[in-house]
Amino acid sequence: MKDNKKYFYGMLVAFALLIIGIGIWLLYRPVPYEIPGCYKQCHINLNNPEFSCAAQAEPPICTMEYRAGDACLQYAHCGTVNGECQSILESEFYDCISCYQWCMNTTADIDSCEKECGSQLPQ
User: Fold this and answer.
1) Contacts of 88 (CB under 8 A, 6+ apart)
2) Torsion over CA: 36, 38, 40, 41 (sign)
């Protein structure tokens, strides 16, 4: 009977030490650093067509709203260069923006600009 009590108390102490050890490990373990992604903006402003990328933990929430010139975003990409989030623009980006700027200043009709400038974009 005494052996059973010793065994029980020994197991109880071992279990308590295990729980304490797990608690200390959870308290002092290193928290992983969340590495942000490099995401592009949702829309282009034709009055100021600067393209930018942002380092954020999650991608931006974009609306379904379409603006003149948004088709040009297919020529703009974001990437990490030397650990920094940077924009990577193809030469077609500037041609596309120029077309939409000229068209919107001339006609101010987004549908005709989509036909005019959109026909120049690869399908």
Assistant:
1) 76, 77, 78, 79
2) positive
Q: Which amino acid is at 66?
A: Y
Provide the 10 A C-beta neighbour count for residue 95: 15
Q: Which helix (H) or strand (E) holds 21?
A: helix 2-28
Q: How far is CA 55 from the centre of its chain?
A: 7
Q: Which residue has the higher pLDDT, 41 or 95?
A: 95
CB 110 within 8 A of CB 100: no
The residue extents of the domains of the chain are 1-31, 37-118
- Of residues 25 and 9, which shows the higher confidence score? 9
Rounded to two decimals, what is the model's pTM? 0.58
DSSP category for residue 82: T
> Do residues 58 and 35 lie in contact, with contact meaning Cβ atoms separated by under 8 Å?
no
pLDDT digit string (tens) for 20-57? Answer: 888 787 777 665 555 577 887 777 777 777 778 888 77
Instruction: Say whether 116 sits in a helix, a strand or coil.
Output: helix
DSSP code of residue 76: E
